[in-house]
Amino acid sequence: MRLAPLVEALKDFILSHSVIHADETPVALLAPGKGKTKKAYVWVYRTTNFVSQRAVYYDFCKDRSGEHPRRVLAEFGATMVTDDYSGYHALHRSGVTAALCWAHARRKLFEAHRDTGSEIAGQAVALIAKLYEIEREARELAQDARQQVRQQRSKPIVDALHTWLVAKRCALAKADVTAKAIDYSLSNWTALSHFLGDGNVPIDNNAAENSVRPLAVGRRNWLFVGSQQAGERAGIVLSLIESAKLNGHDPWAYLKDVFERLPTLKNADLAQLLPHNWRASVTSVAAETHSATRDAVAA
User: How many domains does the chain have?
Assistant: First the structure.
């Protein structure tokens, strides 16, 4: 598949960044000869929304083993924003810096408040909401300015939240739902706090979770993947489609142009067809205009 080298270059572009997102989601894979499905996984790796040239890479895998992110990220040694899935821990031990997702920490506390009415969990959620208010204000700032805002305004909140959670945790039983939510945050506090010292690090992993959504929609439509090879090919095409969207391109026009130009293009020139580098040819501009017109009429 000639698209494979192009997507490999896309993956390398993502891994060249100092901060990336990673997440994984299950998909059903047809078991050969059994007429049943088994659980496979698609790993998602993408750039942050703080960079102007964005990309996402989908890696279809037969299971959820940590060997898959270790394979993809073998040469990566920077910061990765994730949840606390244990499959990433070996990467942290080998030099990848962990920046954990505040949305996950908040979700556990929110669920404790929702399910038990815990005032402690509710107050913690309210404090985390203040961090998000600051992030919304700092979203469009340059890296250094964003980091300064975080140090001046977010760090005091994070420090106060830590002290308060430690004190409240002492009064709770180990099996308490709120205690478990607090334990998740406290055990991951260093990684949760990493965003404070680096303006390039997002506060959460929502960008990766948003890139998982096409797969969630797909699960309702195509139900399962027919084979390992089909899953890998779907990952290749999806990487190009979703990366084109992230850079503001119409994916149909982009892929049409890629398929027309790719057969005669040298491997050394593949970079010009990466979604973040792509410049539409005359025919693809016409296709993109036609697609926009068609969507406008349909609306």
Answer: 2
